[in-house]
Amino acid sequence: MGAIWHSGDVPTAHRDDALARLCESWHADARVLAPDAPHPLRTAEVDHLLAGWSEPHRRYHDVRHLVEVIGAVAELEEAGETDAVGARLARVAGWYHDLAYDPRAAPGSNEHRSATVARDHLNTLGVARGTVDVVEALILMTVDHDAAGDRPALASRRHTAAVFHDADLWILSAPESRYREYAVQVRAEYAHVPDDLFARARAGILGDFTGRAQLYRTGHARTQWEGRARANVAAELRRLGA
Questions:
Q1: 8 Å CB contact between 71 and 17
Q2: Are 103 and 93 in contact (CB under 8 A)?
Q3: Does residue 145 sit in helix, strand or coil?
Q4: Burial of 226 from C-beta contacts in 10 A (0-12 / 13-18 / 19+)
Q5: Cα–Cα nearest to 67, from 130, 30, 23
Q6: CA proximity to 1, closest of 65, 42, 49
Q7: At 13, is the pLDDT very low, low, confident or very high (cuts 50, 70, 90)?
């Protein structure tokens, strides 16, 4: 399966444990969503997913990011922000949402390619069409991170959309050391972009988030994550000279 993730300060034992728990989580969700799919097919799919997340050019958008997203979904579910069905949909969307990741791709291309793979592969597993529609819509939401956007498939799943939105942006609220590591990792993924262009583009993205009245969509994230996220982002903007 290749490297689990590329962060050098993560102990091997912890990576192996995280991988085992990831696989268990995948199989538990897949058994519910695709009960007729044979075990070898589910296993082949999780192997395919982990191989994608372990591509060598990834620095932030790797398996560690996937682990953090799924962990954030669990925290939000425990806080009562979604039910078990919504949490399952958010986890499955998490597995696919950055599966296609090319830092040189046109804006929105990675998200659309990831959504297409999710639709094709979940259909192959036998997941119900309505569920596939929701997962696809959740992934496409990450193009602009607008959880309130007009997406018919999410009309009855607003809480799920809010949870997935916040889980994907959990990293903004990470402890300071992890956030700084994340910022370095993002820069490494865009090493082909000159410093001045990267700083302007990065500041624009971060400024869009901090310009929102509420960075997060769920009550738990707003009370527990938002203050730290705004402090982290403000510090990075200062480092960028913005």
A1: no
A2: no
A3: coil
A4: middle
A5: 23
A6: 49
A7: low
Four-residue CA torsion sign, 51, 55, 112, 20? positive
- Separation between Cα atoms, residue 200 and residue 241, nearest integer Å: 9
- Can you give the C-alpha Rg of the chain in angstroms? 17
d(CA 59, CA 107): 19
Which pLDDT does position 4 carry in this prediction?
Answer: 37
- Give the C-alpha distances (Å, rounded to integers) separating 157 from 80, 83, 241: 15, 11, 39
Query: Closest Cα to residue 221, out of 84, 69, 115, 5?
Result: 69
Is pLDDT at 117 greater than 90 in this prediction?
yes
Q: What is the helix, strand, coil percentage profile of the chain, to 5?
A: 70, 0, 30
> Does the pLDDT at position 8 exceed 50?
no
Q: DSSP character for 1?
A: -
CA 222 to chain centre: 18
Q: What's the rounded Cα separation, in Å, for the pair 144 and 240? A: 22
